[in-house]
Amino acid sequence: MADNFRFGGSSSSNVDFDEQGGCTKEQDRLVPIANVGRIMKQILPSNAKISKEAKETMQESVSEFISFVTSEASDKCQKEKRKTVNGDDICWAMGSLGFDDFAKPLKRYLHKYRELEGEKATQNKAITADDEDKEGASILRREDGQLENDSLAFTPLSLSFGTNISNSRLF
Is the dihedral of CA 67, 158, 39, 150 positive or negative? Predict the structure, then answer.
């Protein structure tokens, strides 16, 4: 993995340079802070507040974790002469890096996601022109004849962090 060298003052204007002389803006390297804050708020009580420093610290940690796991998965793909990192590679990388407690629920999530994607593909084939809304978004017709939006109602966070998943379509 290439070493990065950071130059810059404020966190919004930092630029990273890698060993090959490439340049990456910090905003392109980090998970958006609004997303981090939103996820953090889901776990905390509704009256809890989160400091900017806490969000920035979590943003750095999450971004580094993603890079760490992805790098391990990418190394595996390179050894196997493949160019695409897939979900199984990420699960393998998490297990090989000692994150078995997270890899197992992620594997379950991936399996359920693939099942739902397969069902969705099958249902999409059966959609008629009357089942398209005005914006062109797909509407699915369930077995009972009711229409429903084709969006998935679950997240991997709900599987790995013990949050309430009672509204999830996974279980």
Answer: positive
Tokens at 64, concatenated: 């580094």
Contact 163, 44 (CB under 8 A): no
> DSSP letters along 72-135, please?
HHHHHHHHTT-----HHHHHHHHHHTT-HHHHHHHHHHHHHHHHHHHHHHHHHHH--GGGB-TT
Query: Which contacts (CB < 8 Å, 24+ apart) does range 9-15 have?
Result: 11/56
Overall domain count for the chain: 1
Closest of 131, 165, 171, 122 to residue 149, by C-alpha: 131
pTM for this prediction? 0.59
In a domain, 104, yes or no: yes
Is the CB of residue 167 less than 8 Å from the CB of residue 155? no
Task: Flag whether 117 is in a domain.
Answer: yes
Can you give the residue range of the structural domain that contains 167?
A: 99-171
What is the enclosing helix (H) or strand (E) of 24? strand 23-25
Mean pLDDT of residues grouped by 10 in the chain (171 residues)?
42 50 69 94 94 96 96 96 95 95 92 90 69 50 52 45 39 30
